[in-house]
Amino acid sequence: MRRLFYFAGQALSSIRGSLGISALTAATIAAALLVSGFYAMALQNLENLALVWGRTATLAAYLDDSLPQSEWEETRAAVAGLPPVAKATLVLPAEALARFAARGPEARALVADVSADLLPAAIEVDLRAGFADLAVVERLAKELAALFGVSSVDYGQQEFERLRALLEVLRYGGLGAGILLLLATAFIVSNTIRLTVYARKDEIGILRLVGATRWFVRVPFLMEGAVWGLAGGGLAAATMWLAHLSFAARLSVAIAAVVGGLNVSLFDPTVAALVLGAGFGLGVLGSAFAVGRFLDVEEA
User: Fold this and answer.
1) Are the C-beta atoms of 236 and 268 separated by less than 8 Å?
2) Pick from 86, 81, 95: which is nearest to 125 by CA?
Protein backbone atom coordinates (compact mmCIF):
# COMPACT_ATOMS: atom_id res chain seq x y z
CA MET A 1 0.00 0.00 0.00
CA ARG A 2 2.87 2.35 0.81
CA ARG A 3 4.32 1.76 -2.66
CA LEU A 4 0.97 2.46 -4.26
CA PHE A 5 0.73 5.81 -2.47
CA TYR A 6 4.30 6.60 -3.54
CA PHE A 7 3.55 5.79 -7.19
CA ALA A 8 0.32 7.83 -7.16
CA GLY A 9 2.09 10.76 -5.48
CA GLN A 10 4.88 10.73 -8.07
CA ALA A 11 2.37 10.64 -10.94
CA LEU A 12 0.27 13.49 -9.55
CA SER A 13 3.38 15.53 -8.81
CA SER A 14 4.53 15.12 -12.42
CA ILE A 15 1.09 16.14 -13.74
CA ARG A 16 0.98 19.23 -11.50
CA GLY A 17 4.46 20.19 -12.62
CA SER A 18 3.47 20.15 -16.29
CA LEU A 19 -0.21 21.09 -16.43
CA GLY A 20 0.08 22.62 -19.90
CA ILE A 21 1.63 19.50 -21.42
CA SER A 22 -0.85 17.29 -19.54
CA ALA A 23 -3.84 19.27 -20.83
CA LEU A 24 -2.49 19.27 -24.39
CA THR A 25 -1.90 15.52 -24.32
CA ALA A 26 -5.36 14.83 -22.90
CA ALA A 27 -6.89 17.08 -25.58
CA THR A 28 -4.97 15.22 -28.31
CA ILE A 29 -6.26 11.89 -27.03
CA ALA A 30 -9.79 13.35 -26.80
CA ALA A 31 -9.68 14.59 -30.40
CA ALA A 32 -8.58 11.20 -31.74
CA LEU A 33 -11.18 9.34 -29.68
CA LEU A 34 -13.88 11.82 -30.66
CA VAL A 35 -13.28 11.13 -34.35
CA SER A 36 -13.37 7.38 -33.67
CA GLY A 37 -16.48 7.70 -31.50
CA PHE A 38 -18.45 9.69 -34.08
CA TYR A 39 -17.34 7.22 -36.76
CA ALA A 40 -18.79 4.39 -34.64
CA MET A 41 -22.04 6.31 -34.16
CA ALA A 42 -22.29 7.06 -37.90
CA LEU A 43 -21.94 3.34 -38.61
CA GLN A 44 -24.56 2.53 -35.96
CA ASN A 45 -27.00 5.05 -37.44
CA LEU A 46 -26.55 3.63 -40.93
CA GLU A 47 -27.21 0.12 -39.61
CA ASN A 48 -30.35 1.45 -37.90
CA LEU A 49 -31.33 2.95 -41.26
CA ALA A 50 -31.07 -0.52 -42.80
CA LEU A 51 -33.36 -1.88 -40.07
CA VAL A 52 -35.89 0.94 -40.58
CA TRP A 53 -35.77 0.28 -44.29
CA GLY A 54 -36.56 -3.37 -43.63
CA ARG A 55 -39.45 -2.55 -41.28
CA THR A 56 -41.02 -0.10 -43.72
CA ALA A 57 -40.22 -2.00 -46.90
CA THR A 58 -43.03 -2.29 -49.43
CA LEU A 59 -42.41 -4.55 -52.38
CA ALA A 60 -44.08 -4.19 -55.75
CA ALA A 61 -44.51 -7.33 -57.84
CA TYR A 62 -45.31 -6.39 -61.45
CA LEU A 63 -47.50 -8.80 -63.39
CA ASP A 64 -46.60 -10.06 -66.82
CA ASP A 65 -48.53 -8.45 -69.68
CA SER A 66 -49.39 -11.91 -70.99
CA LEU A 67 -51.14 -12.91 -67.75
CA PRO A 68 -54.95 -12.79 -68.28
CA GLN A 69 -56.80 -10.29 -66.07
CA SER A 70 -58.94 -13.15 -64.77
CA GLU A 71 -55.84 -14.61 -63.03
CA TRP A 72 -54.66 -11.39 -61.36
CA GLU A 73 -56.67 -12.03 -58.19
CA GLU A 74 -55.42 -15.62 -58.02
CA THR A 75 -51.82 -14.38 -58.17
CA ARG A 76 -52.54 -11.78 -55.49
CA ALA A 77 -53.93 -14.52 -53.21
CA ALA A 78 -50.80 -16.62 -53.76
CA VAL A 79 -48.65 -13.66 -52.76
CA ALA A 80 -50.78 -12.97 -49.67
CA GLY A 81 -50.26 -16.57 -48.54
CA LEU A 82 -46.49 -16.22 -48.17
CA PRO A 83 -45.38 -16.20 -44.46
CA PRO A 84 -43.72 -12.75 -44.30
CA VAL A 85 -46.63 -11.01 -46.08
CA ALA A 86 -49.09 -9.02 -43.97
CA LYS A 87 -51.07 -7.58 -46.88
CA ALA A 88 -51.08 -7.93 -50.66
CA THR A 89 -52.95 -5.29 -52.64
CA LEU A 90 -53.71 -5.48 -56.33
CA VAL A 91 -53.02 -2.14 -58.06
CA LEU A 92 -54.73 -1.81 -61.43
CA PRO A 93 -52.98 0.13 -64.25
CA ALA A 94 -55.53 2.97 -64.11
CA GLU A 95 -55.04 3.30 -60.34
CA ALA A 96 -51.24 3.38 -60.72
CA LEU A 97 -51.57 6.13 -63.35
CA ALA A 98 -53.86 8.15 -61.05
CA ARG A 99 -51.41 7.79 -58.15
CA PHE A 100 -48.56 9.11 -60.27
CA ALA A 101 -50.60 12.05 -61.53
CA ALA A 102 -51.55 12.95 -57.94
CA ARG A 103 -47.89 13.72 -57.12
CA GLY A 104 -48.25 17.23 -58.54
CA PRO A 105 -48.66 19.36 -61.65
CA GLU A 106 -45.38 18.24 -63.23
CA ALA A 107 -46.23 14.57 -62.78
CA ARG A 108 -49.73 15.20 -64.15
CA ALA A 109 -48.27 16.88 -67.24
CA LEU A 110 -45.92 13.93 -67.86
CA VAL A 111 -48.76 11.39 -68.01
CA ALA A 112 -51.41 13.63 -69.59
CA ASP A 113 -51.44 11.64 -72.85
CA VAL A 114 -50.41 8.26 -71.43
CA SER A 115 -52.88 5.39 -71.67
CA ALA A 116 -53.34 3.18 -68.61
CA ASP A 117 -53.03 0.15 -70.91
CA LEU A 118 -49.30 0.86 -71.24
CA LEU A 119 -48.73 0.22 -67.52
CA PRO A 120 -48.52 -3.25 -65.96
CA ALA A 121 -50.73 -4.35 -63.10
CA ALA A 122 -48.88 -4.69 -59.82
CA ILE A 123 -49.24 -6.27 -56.39
CA GLU A 124 -48.09 -4.15 -53.45
CA VAL A 125 -46.75 -6.25 -50.58
CA ASP A 126 -46.56 -5.10 -46.95
CA LEU A 127 -44.53 -7.21 -44.51
CA ARG A 128 -45.51 -8.47 -41.09
CA ALA A 129 -44.05 -6.61 -38.09
CA GLY A 130 -41.72 -9.48 -37.16
CA PHE A 131 -40.07 -9.60 -40.57
CA ALA A 132 -37.85 -6.52 -40.41
CA ASP A 133 -34.58 -7.95 -41.70
CA LEU A 134 -33.59 -6.80 -45.19
CA ALA A 135 -32.29 -10.30 -45.83
CA VAL A 136 -35.92 -11.45 -45.50
CA VAL A 137 -36.97 -8.74 -47.96
CA GLU A 138 -34.41 -9.95 -50.48
CA ARG A 139 -35.45 -13.57 -50.02
CA LEU A 140 -39.14 -12.70 -50.42
CA ALA A 141 -38.36 -10.71 -53.58
CA LYS A 142 -36.79 -13.83 -55.09
CA GLU A 143 -39.82 -15.92 -54.12
CA LEU A 144 -42.17 -13.38 -55.69
CA ALA A 145 -40.12 -13.23 -58.90
CA ALA A 146 -40.40 -17.01 -59.16
CA LEU A 147 -44.22 -16.97 -59.02
CA PHE A 148 -46.11 -17.63 -62.23
CA GLY A 149 -47.27 -14.43 -63.86
CA VAL A 150 -44.81 -12.12 -62.06
CA SER A 151 -42.40 -10.38 -64.45
CA SER A 152 -40.31 -8.34 -61.98
CA VAL A 153 -40.12 -7.23 -58.35
CA ASP A 154 -39.03 -3.84 -57.02
CA TYR A 155 -38.19 -2.94 -53.40
CA GLY A 156 -35.61 -0.18 -53.91
CA GLN A 157 -32.85 -2.74 -54.34
CA GLN A 158 -30.47 -0.33 -56.08
CA GLU A 159 -30.62 2.13 -53.19
CA PHE A 160 -30.20 -0.73 -50.73
CA GLU A 161 -27.13 -2.00 -52.57
CA ARG A 162 -25.60 1.48 -52.33
CA LEU A 163 -26.32 1.56 -48.60
CA ARG A 164 -24.83 -1.88 -48.11
CA ALA A 165 -21.70 -0.91 -50.07
CA LEU A 166 -21.34 2.23 -47.95
CA LEU A 167 -21.62 0.15 -44.77
CA GLU A 168 -18.89 -2.19 -45.99
CA VAL A 169 -16.59 0.73 -46.81
CA LEU A 170 -17.18 2.25 -43.37
CA ARG A 171 -16.65 -1.05 -41.59
CA TYR A 172 -13.33 -1.93 -43.18
CA GLY A 173 -11.93 1.37 -44.50
CA GLY A 174 -12.93 3.26 -41.37
CA LEU A 175 -11.52 0.54 -39.14
CA GLY A 176 -8.11 0.81 -40.83
CA ALA A 177 -8.13 4.62 -40.63
CA GLY A 178 -9.18 4.45 -36.97
CA ILE A 179 -6.32 2.10 -36.08
CA LEU A 180 -3.81 4.40 -37.80
CA LEU A 181 -5.25 7.41 -35.95
CA LEU A 182 -5.01 5.67 -32.57
CA LEU A 183 -1.43 4.54 -33.27
CA ALA A 184 -0.48 8.11 -34.18
CA THR A 185 -2.04 9.31 -30.93
CA ALA A 186 -0.14 6.67 -28.94
CA PHE A 187 3.05 7.91 -30.62
CA ILE A 188 2.30 11.50 -29.53
CA VAL A 189 1.62 10.35 -25.96
CA SER A 190 4.85 8.36 -26.02
CA ASN A 191 6.91 11.38 -27.10
CA THR A 192 5.28 13.58 -24.47
CA ILE A 193 6.01 11.05 -21.73
CA ARG A 194 9.56 10.78 -23.01
CA LEU A 195 10.06 14.50 -22.35
CA THR A 196 8.85 13.99 -18.79
CA VAL A 197 11.17 11.00 -18.38
CA TYR A 198 14.20 12.97 -19.56
CA ALA A 199 13.30 15.80 -17.19
CA ARG A 200 13.55 13.31 -14.32
CA LYS A 201 16.46 11.25 -15.62
CA ASP A 202 18.70 12.16 -12.65
CA GLU A 203 16.04 10.95 -10.21
CA ILE A 204 15.57 7.77 -12.23
CA GLY A 205 19.34 7.23 -12.28
CA ILE A 206 19.49 7.46 -8.48
CA LEU A 207 16.59 5.01 -8.15
CA ARG A 208 18.39 2.55 -10.43
CA LEU A 209 21.62 2.93 -8.40
CA VAL A 210 19.86 2.02 -5.15
CA GLY A 211 18.35 -1.09 -6.71
CA ALA A 212 14.94 0.00 -8.02
CA THR A 213 13.53 -2.44 -10.56
CA ARG A 214 12.36 -1.43 -14.03
CA TRP A 215 8.74 -1.76 -12.91
CA PHE A 216 9.32 0.43 -9.85
CA VAL A 217 10.54 3.16 -12.20
CA ARG A 218 7.79 2.56 -14.78
CA VAL A 219 4.67 2.51 -12.62
CA PRO A 220 4.42 6.28 -11.85
CA PHE A 221 4.72 7.07 -15.56
CA LEU A 222 2.13 4.42 -16.42
CA MET A 223 -0.23 6.00 -13.89
CA GLU A 224 0.43 9.42 -15.39
CA GLY A 225 -0.36 8.11 -18.87
CA ALA A 226 -3.51 6.43 -17.55
CA VAL A 227 -4.70 9.74 -16.05
CA TRP A 228 -4.11 11.50 -19.39
CA GLY A 229 -5.92 8.73 -21.26
CA LEU A 230 -8.93 8.67 -18.93
CA ALA A 231 -9.15 12.47 -19.03
CA GLY A 232 -9.06 12.42 -22.85
CA GLY A 233 -11.59 9.58 -23.04
CA GLY A 234 -13.89 11.30 -20.56
CA LEU A 235 -13.69 14.55 -22.51
CA ALA A 236 -14.51 12.76 -25.78
CA ALA A 237 -17.46 10.89 -24.21
CA ALA A 238 -18.79 14.10 -22.63
CA THR A 239 -18.54 15.92 -25.98
CA MET A 240 -20.49 13.12 -27.70
CA TRP A 241 -23.19 13.30 -24.98
CA LEU A 242 -23.50 17.09 -25.35
CA ALA A 243 -23.64 16.75 -29.14
CA HIS A 244 -26.42 14.18 -28.76
CA LEU A 245 -28.44 16.49 -26.51
CA SER A 246 -27.92 19.47 -28.84
CA PHE A 247 -28.22 18.02 -32.34
CA ALA A 248 -29.66 14.47 -32.40
CA ALA A 249 -33.33 15.52 -32.23
CA ARG A 250 -32.81 18.21 -34.88
CA LEU A 251 -31.09 15.74 -37.22
CA SER A 252 -33.91 13.22 -36.74
CA VAL A 253 -36.49 15.86 -37.68
CA ALA A 254 -34.39 17.06 -40.63
CA ILE A 255 -34.22 13.61 -42.24
CA ALA A 256 -37.75 12.53 -41.28
CA ALA A 257 -39.07 13.59 -44.69
CA VAL A 258 -36.59 11.22 -46.36
CA VAL A 259 -36.41 8.39 -43.82
CA GLY A 260 -39.30 8.40 -41.40
CA GLY A 261 -38.89 6.49 -38.14
CA LEU A 262 -35.10 6.85 -37.88
CA ASN A 263 -33.97 8.34 -34.59
CA VAL A 264 -30.44 9.69 -35.02
CA SER A 265 -28.15 8.98 -32.08
CA LEU A 266 -24.80 10.64 -31.39
CA PHE A 267 -24.16 8.97 -28.03
CA ASP A 268 -24.29 5.37 -26.89
CA PRO A 269 -23.22 4.09 -23.42
CA THR A 270 -21.38 1.13 -24.93
CA VAL A 271 -19.46 3.36 -27.36
CA ALA A 272 -18.70 5.78 -24.48
CA ALA A 273 -17.32 2.90 -22.39
CA LEU A 274 -15.16 1.80 -25.33
CA VAL A 275 -13.90 5.37 -25.76
CA LEU A 276 -12.90 5.51 -22.08
CA GLY A 277 -11.20 2.12 -22.33
CA ALA A 278 -9.37 3.15 -25.49
CA GLY A 279 -8.19 6.36 -23.81
CA PHE A 280 -6.85 4.41 -20.85
CA GLY A 281 -5.11 1.97 -23.19
CA LEU A 282 -3.59 4.77 -25.29
CA GLY A 283 -2.19 6.52 -22.24
CA VAL A 284 -0.72 3.37 -20.69
CA LEU A 285 0.62 2.04 -24.01
CA GLY A 286 2.31 5.33 -24.90
CA SER A 287 3.84 5.62 -21.43
CA ALA A 288 5.07 2.03 -21.38
CA PHE A 289 6.76 2.44 -24.75
CA ALA A 290 8.46 5.73 -23.81
CA VAL A 291 9.79 4.54 -20.43
CA GLY A 292 10.87 1.21 -21.88
CA ARG A 293 12.88 2.93 -24.62
CA PHE A 294 14.52 5.25 -22.09
CA LEU A 295 15.52 2.41 -19.75
CA ASP A 296 16.85 0.34 -22.64
CA VAL A 297 19.08 3.25 -23.73
CA GLU A 298 20.28 3.85 -20.16
CA GLU A 299 21.16 0.19 -19.65
CA ALA A 300 22.88 -0.20 -23.03
Assistant:
1) no
2) 86
DSSP letter (8 states) at residue 133: -
Find the DSSP H helices in the chain. 2-17, 19-55, 72-80, 93-101, 105-110, 134-146, 157-199, 201-209, 214-243, 249-254, 269-299
Specify the CATH architecture of the domain 58-154.
2-Layer Sandwich (3.30)
All CATH 3.30.70.3040 domain ranges in the chain, comma separated: 58-154
Rounded CA-CA distance 16/30 in Å is 20
Confidence (pTM): 0.66
**What's the gap between Cα 88 and its chain centre?**
35
- For residue 129, the tally of other CB atoms under 10 A from its CB is 7
C-alpha separations of 43 from 22, 48, 59 in Å = 32, 9, 26
In a 13 Å sphere around the CA of 39, the CA atoms on its Cβ side amount to 21
Q: Determine contact, residues 62/150, Cβ cutoff 8 Å.
A: yes
The per-residue pLDDT for range 176-234, each reduced to its tens digit, is 777 787 777 777 777 777 777 777 777 777 777 777 788 887 888 888 888 888 999 99
Q: What is the DSSP letter of 130?
A: T
pLDDT digits (tens, 9 = 90+) for 66-78: 888 888 889 999 8
Burial of 248 (0-12, 13-18, 19+ CB in 10 A): middle
